[in-house]
C-alpha cells in the first residue's frame, strides 16, 4: 500500500499532514484519508446490544457523506472509514455477508456501496442473498417495513454458518430483520449485524 495514497482530505480537500511512523509502517496501518476537523464531526454510536453493532450516529456530517458516496457516486469515499471498519471486522470468525442491492438498482448506481466499504477495508466477504424487489422502504413506518413480504432470496447454502450481516445504515431494522430471518430459516447457526451508521 502506498503511504502517500491520499494527500488531501477526501471530505473537505484540506491538506493532510501525515507523519509516517514506524508503527504505521510495520503494522501496515491504513494512511489517513480525512482530517481531524472532519473526523470530529462524526459522532460515535453508543451500542447497547451485541446483536447489531453500529459505528456512527446519523448526523449532518454523516448525511452529507452518505449523499456524496451513494447518490453522487463518489466511490473513493469508501476509503474514509476503512480503518474503523477493518478494526471492527478483521478478527471476526463469522462469515461476512453484505446486504445486496437489487440488480436493477446496482446497474443504476454502478457500484454496491456495502461491498466497496468492505473492499476498501480489506475485509473478505461472501454473497448469500439476492434482493428480489426494487420497492423502496423510504416513507414507510417501522411496522409497515417489517410487515413487507420477504425481499431477499438465498443464493448460497448457509447451513450451520455464523453470519455477520453488513449494511451501510440501520434505520428501522427491517432490512436486517428480513435478511436475518431468511438466513436462520435456511439453517444458519447464528446471525448478527454490523452497520456503519445508525439512523
From TrEMBL:
- Can you give the residue ranges of the Phosphoribosyltransferase domain? 122-198
**What name appears for this protein in its UniProt entry?**
Competence protein ComFC
Q: What is the lineage of its organism?
A: Bacteria, Bacillati, Bacillota, Bacilli, Bacillales
Q: What InterPro entries does UniProt report for this protein, alphabetically?
A: ComF/GntX_DNA_util-trans, PRTase-like, PRTase_dom
Family statement? Belongs to the ComF/GntX family.
Pfam families reported for this sequence: Pribosyltran
Please name the source species: Ureibacillus xyleni
Amino acid at each position: 500500500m502506498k503511504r502517500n495514497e491520499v494527500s488531501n482530505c477526501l471530505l473537505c480537500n484540506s491538506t493532510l499532514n501525515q507523519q509516517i511512523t514506524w508503527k504505521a509502517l510495520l503494522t501496515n496501518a491504513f494512511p489517513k484519508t480525512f482530517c481531524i476537523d472532519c473526523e470530529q464531526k462524526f459522532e460515535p454510536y453508543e451500542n447497547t446490544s451485541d446483536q447489531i453493532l453500529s459505528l456512527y450516529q446519523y448526523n449532518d456530517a454523516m448525511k452529507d457523506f452518505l449523499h456524496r458516496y451513494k447518490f453522487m457516486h463518489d466511490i473513493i469515499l469508501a476509503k474514509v472509514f476503512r480503518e474503523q471498519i477493518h478494526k471492527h471486522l478483521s478478527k471476526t470468525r463469522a462469515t461476512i455477508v453484505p446486504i445486496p442491492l437489487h440488480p436493477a438498482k446496482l446497474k443504476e448506481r454502478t457500484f454496491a456501496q456495502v461491498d466497496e466499504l468492505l473492499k476498501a477495508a480489506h475485509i473478505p466477504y461472501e454473497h448469500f442473498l439476492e434482493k428480489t424487489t426494487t420497492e423502496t422502504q423510504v416513507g414507510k413506518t417501522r411496522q409497515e417495513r417489517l410487515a413487507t413480504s420477504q425481499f431477499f432470496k438465498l443464493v448460497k447454502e448457509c447451513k450451520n454458518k455464523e453470519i455477520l450481516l453488513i449494511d451501510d445504515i440501520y434505520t428501522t431494522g427491517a432490512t436486517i430483520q428480513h435478511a436475518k430471518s431468511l438466513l436462520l430459516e435456511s439453517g444458519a447457526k447464528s446471525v448478527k449485524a454490523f452497520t456503519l451508521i445508525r439512523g
